[in-house]
Amino acid sequence: xxxxxxxxQLLVDLVSLDSTNAHGTENAVAQAVAYYCxxxxxxxxxxxVAPQRSNLIITMGENPRHTRPRLLFCGHMDxxxxxxxxxxxxxxSAEVVADVLxxxxxxxxxxxxxxMTLMMARxxxxxxxxxxxxxxxxxxxxxxxxxxAQKYVEAYGVHDIGGLVIGEPTxxxxxxxxxxxxxxxxxxxxxxxxxxxxxxxxxxxxEALDAIEILNRVAASSVFSKNDSVLGKGTLAxxxxxxxxxxxxxxxxxxxxxxxxxxxxxxxxQFMALWQQALKHDLEGGxxxxxxxxxxxxxxxxxxxxxxxxxxxxxxxxxxxxxxxWRTVSYYTDGSVLAAPAQIPTLIxxxxxxxxxxxxxxxxxxxxxxxxxxxxxxxxxxxxxxxWQL
Length: 390
Description:
Layout: H1 3-15, H2 27-39, E1 43-50, E2 53-59, E3 70-76, E4 96-97, E5 100-102, H3 106-124, E6 134-139, H4 147-156, E7 161-166, E8 175-178, E9 180-189, H5 204-221, E10 227-228, E11 232-233, E12 235-243, E13 253-262, H6 265-284, E14 291-300, E15 303-304, H7 310-318, E16 327-329, H8 335-338, E17 346-348, E18 363-365, H9 366-384
Parallel strand pairs: 3-6, 3-7, 7-17, 8-16
Antiparallel strand pairs: 1-2, 2-6, 4-5, 5-18, 8-15, 9-13, 9-14, 10-11, 12-13
Helix pairs in contact: 1-3, 3-9, 5-6
């Protein structure tokens, strides 16, 4: 089997495995990667995160000896569900047509995972590479709560990591950061009554709709709506709403979820204070019986690395990009947990197309995938040889 054929087969194997996050089935992917790595002489360590869910930590030697900061490559093994929309091809068929491989996770981000795995195997063949400060971390749970990244930090810390490379989809472009993400649940309470006499109750669904209207009004008028110079404009979306128990009963409880993305943590904090103040004044203050409770579901910090950082500059050299040729991405990554708190320089680069992530008929270019293996290899090799420093 040729090297390219072996590389494509590994990706086919991974995409054909259902590692949908909600099912907690990442271990099938972990086992496939571990089997391949061990066959290539790589050292594999399992970190159990939850029953049947484990991170993989892959190094070129069992006890590498190095004094320089580590360059850590990182990817996640879980995917979002395939969804209810009918796919043109089964989502786990991993079918290859011409230069395109189809399947859930093809772009986000099993192509990145497979490419970085193959990179580690190629590095292992180089003399002395077993002691290079290079490792690969494959996590579980990124698509929901980043539990794998959190457990890694709790167990091992990040004190020895000098740079992070995340293989999320960027269309093979150099990306230097992403917005922060905050998920909120706002639960509204009213008072039940018969639906034929609504004035005797307090309708919690109406309260929730009023709260959403206030949310949009405050967002449009606050600092939250202004552009960050690099990460762009903050966004928000109401992504879930639920309430009521029966058609002829005025609901006494309803809730909605809000997804917020922000580039500036200070602006986000100001916006949240304004929104809560407006709710107290405009909603609860003027409507007897209205009451809201807040619950944070997730908060991920923005991630940004300066374009002049050696990691970014080396990546640009490898793709023949000028110093001003870089992008940011709209999604958040495990870098919010692994890198943002300690301000570890982070490169986001992957062969996948981020516009196809989480969508039906997800796919990846096979040629882009094969090129990314070479990119990761040259990046890691040049660092291992000391040609640039973190």
